């Protein structure tokens, strides 16, 4: 049995936990980071599969993500723009493909008018939402009691307009059906990115990538902590008393500290035994949070053949198995990589069939966008975060109907020496690496302030 003593113990070596640990260390506090996995990074994971470098987890950097951009620059990492030259493609309800440029999908003029009006209305509503305090919106309770799907149905009878607007939140971000989360949760998602228009603009939200992969951010942050990062140490117990906290791992490592930061997805809290138990309100709140579900599909080809057709690689359709796809070719790579996404109920259906049939159906969907060459990648890989024991879904946790207004204000509230920090509870940068870094900074600042009080 190993016994350690630190000022702060951090559970989870993702961007939030490692940011917090580095900030605390700078402030002169001693730390140790306990990570259940055999690697650092959490939902950031860059790996080589069959000779191809793949961003299995998060990867994009957008202009509004200031905390992430500051960290990338401070770590000396380089970024490059996502390939976007040429035309995008859209497939409508009838399966017809249209090439287009710009942000608005090529739909009939009446549908386009409705979509533009809905985007303008949502932008106006989002402007009234503080992403750190969405529950303070004057209509928060009413907006949290109606699903985003039902809200859209109140706005228009145009089904294609509703399907496309829902896609930007449901499929592309929360990865849940639009009937499963509230209008308030949708507004928070948009507010966390600055506006609904930003979510609509793929060139904005998926602007840049890091040369060599985004997992380098946590890898370099962990490097600075050296032996104070312990891998393969799932935490099973958190005990608190008047003197602080005792944290125990499944292999008997015991850490005595003044504070603990739980820097992992909140849906994993039930896997830890708390003594005394977490307050009733926290326990209730955690039952109203759940992860989304998405398969991230990587298809590598001998060359980016779609560029020869004048295509950017950007593709959308709420009616396809892969509802969106992009050119994900690595910096300096002669091969071409496509990344596609299969969300919520489509993903459910695909895990009811064999792996071979799932691959065939997904590649068939990609071929609807790019043509028959998409059927034969030289490398194919599915990122299935729902099967990741220490994540259990993607991209992040969100509340069920009514949960955000009811419990949101308590999500980050410490319980004695127990603090909470992860992208799932961020305001700006919610469910992104940027939000994780912001939460890591915030909780570290709070603990430093507490130690100096």
UniProtKB/TrEMBL annotation:
Record SUPFAM superfamilies: FAD-linked reductases, C-terminal domain, FAD/NAD(P)-binding domain
InterPro entries according to UniProt: Amino_oxidase (IPR002937), FAD/NAD-bd_sf (IPR036188), Flavin_amine_oxidase (IPR001613), Flavin_MAO (IPR050703)
Domain of life: Bacteria
Gene3D superfamilies named in the record: FAD/NAD(P)-binding domain
Amine oxidase domain mapped to chain residues: 16-447
Key words, A-Z: Oxidoreductase
Pfam family, one: Amino_oxidase
Cofactor field: FAD
Keyword DNA repair recorded: no
Similarity comment: Belongs to the flavin monoamine oxidase family.
Protein name stated in the entry: FAD-dependent oxidoreductase
Organism of origin: Microbacterium gallinarum
Classification of source organism: Bacteria, Bacillati, Actinomycetota, Actinomycetes, Micrococcales
């Amino acid at each position: 049995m190993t016994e350690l003593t630190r000022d702060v113990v951090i559970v989870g070596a993702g961007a939030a936990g490692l940011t917090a640990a580095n900030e605390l260390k700078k402030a002169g506090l001693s730390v140790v980071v306990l990570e259940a996995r055999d690697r650092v990074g959490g939902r950031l994971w860059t790996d080589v599969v069959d000779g191809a470098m793949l961003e299995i987890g998060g990867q994009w950097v957008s202009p509004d993500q200031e905390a992430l951009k500051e960290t990338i620059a401070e770590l000396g990492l380089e970024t490059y723009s996502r390939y976007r030259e040429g035309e995008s493609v859209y497939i409508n309800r009838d399966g017809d493909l249209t090439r287009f440029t710009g942000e608005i999908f090529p739909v009939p003029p009446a549908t386009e008018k409705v979509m533009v009006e809905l985007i303008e209305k949502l932008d106006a509503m989002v402007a009234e939402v503080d992403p750190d305090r969405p529950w303070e919106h004057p209509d928060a309770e009413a907006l949290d009691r109606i699903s985003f799907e039902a809200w859209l149905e109140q706005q228009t009878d145009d089904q294609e307009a509703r399907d496309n607007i829902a896609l930007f939140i449901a499929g592309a971000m929360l990865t849940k059906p639009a009937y499963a989360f509230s209008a308030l949760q949708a507004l928070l998602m948009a507010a966390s990115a600055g506006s609904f228009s930003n979510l609509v603009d793929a060139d904005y939200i998926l602007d840049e990538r890091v040369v060599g992969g985004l997992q380098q951010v946590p890898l370099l942050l962990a490097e600075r902590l050296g032996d104070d990062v312990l891998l393969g140490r799932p935490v099973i117990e958190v005990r608190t008393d008047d003197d602080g906290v005792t944290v125990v791992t499944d292999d008997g490592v015991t850490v005595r500290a003044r504070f603990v930061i739980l820097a992992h997805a909140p849906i994993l809290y039930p896997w830890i035994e708390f003594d005394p138990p977490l307050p009733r309100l926290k326990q209730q709140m955690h039952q109203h949070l759940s992860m989304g579900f998405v398969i991230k599909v990587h298809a590598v080809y001998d060359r980016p053949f779609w560029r020869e057709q004048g295509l950017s690689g950007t593709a959308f359709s709420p009616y396809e198995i892969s509802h969106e796809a992009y050119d994900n070719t690595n910096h300096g790579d002669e091969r071409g990589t496509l990344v596609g996404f299969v969300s919520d109920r489509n993903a459910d259906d695909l895990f009811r069939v064999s792996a071979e049939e799932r691959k065939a159906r997904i590649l068939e969907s990609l071929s609807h966008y790019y043509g028959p060459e998409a059927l034969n990648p030289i490398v194919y890989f599915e990122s299935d975060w729902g099967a990741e024991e220490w994540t259990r879904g993607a991209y992040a946790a969100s509340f069920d109907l009514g949960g955000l207004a009811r419990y949101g204000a308590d999500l980050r509230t410490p319980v004695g020496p127990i603090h909470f920090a992860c992208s799932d509870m961020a305001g700006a940068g919610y469910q992104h690496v940027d939000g994780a870094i912001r939460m890591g900074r915030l909780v570290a600042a709070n603990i430093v302030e507490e130690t100096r009080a």
